[in-house]
Amino acid sequence: MPTRLLIIADTHVPKRARDLPAQVWEAVDAADVVVHAGDWVDESLLDQLEERARRLVAVFGNNDHGALRHRLREEERAVIDGVRLGVVHETGAAQGREARCSARYPDLDVLVFGHSHIPWDTTTGTGLRLLNPGSPTDRRRQPHCTYMTAVAVDGRLEDVQLHRLFQRAVPGT
Protein backbone atom coordinates (compact mmCIF):
# COMPACT_ATOMS: atom_id res chain seq x y z
CA MET A 1 0.00 0.00 0.00
CA PRO A 2 1.32 3.46 -0.86
CA THR A 3 1.88 5.88 2.04
CA ARG A 4 0.23 9.31 1.67
CA LEU A 5 2.26 12.27 2.94
CA LEU A 6 1.21 15.79 3.83
CA ILE A 7 4.18 18.18 3.80
CA ILE A 8 3.87 21.53 5.58
CA ALA A 9 6.15 24.15 7.13
CA ASP A 10 6.10 27.69 8.45
CA THR A 11 2.62 27.53 9.93
CA HIS A 12 3.30 30.38 12.41
CA VAL A 13 0.09 29.70 14.38
CA PRO A 14 -1.25 31.86 16.06
CA LYS A 15 0.94 34.77 14.84
CA ARG A 16 0.09 34.58 11.13
CA ALA A 17 -3.20 32.70 11.45
CA ARG A 18 -5.42 31.52 14.28
CA ASP A 19 -5.50 28.02 12.85
CA LEU A 20 -4.56 25.99 9.82
CA PRO A 21 -6.94 26.40 6.87
CA ALA A 22 -9.71 23.78 6.68
CA GLN A 23 -8.20 22.36 3.47
CA VAL A 24 -4.97 21.59 5.35
CA TRP A 25 -6.84 19.90 8.22
CA GLU A 26 -8.63 17.75 5.60
CA ALA A 27 -5.22 16.82 4.19
CA VAL A 28 -4.04 15.92 7.73
CA ASP A 29 -6.98 13.54 8.04
CA ALA A 30 -6.25 11.98 4.63
CA ALA A 31 -2.50 11.54 5.19
CA ASP A 32 -0.72 8.52 6.63
CA VAL A 33 2.23 10.73 7.60
CA VAL A 34 2.35 14.47 8.28
CA VAL A 35 5.75 16.11 7.79
CA HIS A 36 6.26 19.56 9.38
CA ALA A 37 9.50 21.43 8.68
CA GLY A 38 9.32 23.89 11.57
CA ASP A 39 8.24 27.39 12.58
CA TRP A 40 5.21 26.29 14.54
CA VAL A 41 5.51 29.30 16.92
CA ASP A 42 3.09 27.89 19.51
CA GLU A 43 3.03 24.44 21.06
CA SER A 44 -0.76 24.06 20.77
CA LEU A 45 -0.58 23.26 17.03
CA LEU A 46 1.98 20.54 17.77
CA ASP A 47 -0.44 19.09 20.33
CA GLN A 48 -3.28 19.15 17.80
CA LEU A 49 -1.24 17.51 15.05
CA GLU A 50 0.05 14.83 17.42
CA GLU A 51 -3.57 14.01 18.33
CA ARG A 52 -4.95 14.10 14.80
CA ALA A 53 -2.17 12.79 12.55
CA ARG A 54 -1.62 9.06 12.18
CA ARG A 55 2.13 9.74 12.27
CA LEU A 56 4.05 13.01 12.62
CA VAL A 57 7.64 13.65 11.53
CA ALA A 58 8.58 17.16 12.61
CA VAL A 59 11.36 19.58 13.57
CA PHE A 60 11.58 22.98 15.21
CA GLY A 61 12.39 26.16 13.29
CA ASN A 62 14.14 29.41 14.06
CA ASN A 63 10.90 30.96 15.42
CA ASP A 64 10.27 28.05 17.79
CA HIS A 65 11.41 28.32 21.39
CA GLY A 66 10.79 26.90 24.84
CA ALA A 67 8.71 23.73 24.88
CA LEU A 68 8.87 23.30 21.10
CA ARG A 69 12.66 23.02 21.24
CA HIS A 70 12.40 20.53 24.09
CA ARG A 71 9.84 18.35 22.28
CA LEU A 72 11.27 18.50 18.75
CA ARG A 73 14.72 18.13 17.22
CA GLU A 74 16.54 20.37 14.76
CA GLU A 75 16.78 17.50 12.25
CA GLU A 76 14.65 14.40 11.92
CA ARG A 77 14.89 11.30 9.76
CA ALA A 78 12.43 8.56 8.92
CA VAL A 79 12.12 5.72 6.45
CA ILE A 80 8.65 5.84 4.93
CA ASP A 81 7.73 2.95 2.66
CA GLY A 82 11.40 2.62 1.73
CA VAL A 83 11.95 6.35 1.14
CA ARG A 84 14.79 7.75 3.27
CA LEU A 85 13.36 11.11 4.35
CA GLY A 86 15.05 13.93 6.23
CA VAL A 87 13.47 17.07 7.67
CA VAL A 88 15.20 20.31 8.65
CA HIS A 89 13.98 23.89 8.85
CA GLU A 90 16.85 25.82 7.25
CA THR A 91 19.20 24.89 4.40
CA GLY A 92 20.80 28.29 3.80
CA ALA A 93 20.72 30.46 0.70
CA ALA A 94 19.05 29.21 -2.48
CA GLN A 95 22.32 29.62 -4.40
CA GLY A 96 24.38 26.49 -3.86
CA ARG A 97 21.58 24.67 -1.97
CA GLU A 98 21.73 21.51 -4.10
CA ALA A 99 25.48 21.03 -3.62
CA ARG A 100 25.34 21.81 0.13
CA CYS A 101 22.45 19.45 0.77
CA SER A 102 23.91 16.67 -1.38
CA ALA A 103 27.14 16.86 0.63
CA ARG A 104 25.41 17.07 4.00
CA TYR A 105 22.72 14.42 3.41
CA PRO A 106 24.29 11.75 1.14
CA ASP A 107 22.22 8.98 2.74
CA LEU A 108 18.77 10.52 2.04
CA ASP A 109 16.38 10.24 -0.88
CA VAL A 110 14.31 13.31 0.08
CA LEU A 111 15.00 16.36 2.23
CA VAL A 112 12.04 18.49 3.33
CA PHE A 113 12.84 22.01 4.50
CA GLY A 114 11.11 25.30 5.19
CA HIS A 115 12.10 28.80 6.35
CA SER A 116 11.79 30.78 3.11
CA HIS A 117 8.01 30.30 2.58
CA ILE A 118 8.95 29.76 -1.08
CA PRO A 119 7.88 26.44 -2.63
CA TRP A 120 10.83 24.43 -3.95
CA ASP A 121 11.08 21.11 -5.76
CA THR A 122 14.39 20.13 -7.28
CA THR A 123 16.53 17.04 -7.56
CA THR A 124 20.28 17.36 -7.08
CA GLY A 125 22.92 15.74 -9.25
CA THR A 126 23.25 12.99 -6.64
CA GLY A 127 19.52 12.23 -6.82
CA LEU A 128 18.51 13.94 -3.55
CA ARG A 129 15.06 15.48 -3.90
CA LEU A 130 14.65 18.83 -2.12
CA LEU A 131 11.12 19.90 -1.16
CA ASN A 132 9.88 23.09 0.48
CA PRO A 133 6.08 23.26 0.74
CA GLY A 134 5.95 27.03 1.27
CA SER A 135 3.54 28.13 3.99
CA PRO A 136 -0.19 27.41 4.36
CA THR A 137 -0.70 30.57 6.44
CA ASP A 138 1.87 33.22 5.43
CA ARG A 139 2.52 33.61 1.72
CA ARG A 140 4.90 36.55 2.14
CA ARG A 141 5.78 37.61 -1.41
CA GLN A 142 4.34 34.46 -3.01
CA PRO A 143 1.05 34.58 -4.93
CA HIS A 144 -0.58 31.92 -2.71
CA CYS A 145 -0.26 30.11 0.57
CA THR A 146 0.79 26.53 -0.20
CA TYR A 147 1.43 23.00 1.05
CA MET A 148 2.46 19.73 -0.60
CA THR A 149 1.26 16.17 -0.76
CA ALA A 150 3.14 13.12 -2.04
CA VAL A 151 3.00 9.34 -2.06
CA ALA A 152 5.80 7.04 -0.91
CA VAL A 153 5.72 3.61 -2.47
CA ASP A 154 8.38 0.91 -2.73
CA GLY A 155 11.27 3.30 -2.03
CA ARG A 156 10.07 5.99 -4.43
CA LEU A 157 8.42 9.36 -3.85
CA GLU A 158 5.66 9.84 -6.40
CA ASP A 159 2.80 12.20 -7.19
CA VAL A 160 4.38 15.24 -5.48
CA GLN A 161 1.82 18.03 -5.71
CA LEU A 162 1.97 21.66 -4.66
CA HIS A 163 -1.45 22.81 -3.47
CA ARG A 164 -2.45 26.46 -3.55
CA LEU A 165 -4.78 27.85 -0.95
CA PHE A 166 -7.07 30.48 -2.41
CA GLN A 167 -8.86 31.26 0.83
CA ARG A 168 -6.77 33.33 3.20
CA ALA A 169 -6.10 31.98 6.65
CA VAL A 170 -7.79 33.91 9.44
CA PRO A 171 -5.15 36.35 10.73
CA GLY A 172 -3.82 35.82 14.25
CA THR A 173 -4.82 37.90 17.18
TrEMBL record:
Keyword Metal-binding: yes
Enzyme Commission number, as recorded: 3.1.4.-
Record bears the keyword Metal-binding: yes
InterPro entries xref list: Calcineurin-like_PHP_lpxH, Metallo-depent_PP-like, Phosphodiesterase_MJ0936/Vps29
Bilayer-spanning residue ranges: none
Cofactor list: a divalent metal cation
Annotated ranges, domain Calcineurin-like phosphoesterase: 4-150
NCBIfam families in alphabetical order: yfcE
Name of the molecule in the record: Phosphoesterase
Organism: Nocardioides bizhenqiangii
Upper taxonomic lineage: Bacteria, Bacillati, Actinomycetota, Actinomycetes, Propionibacteriales
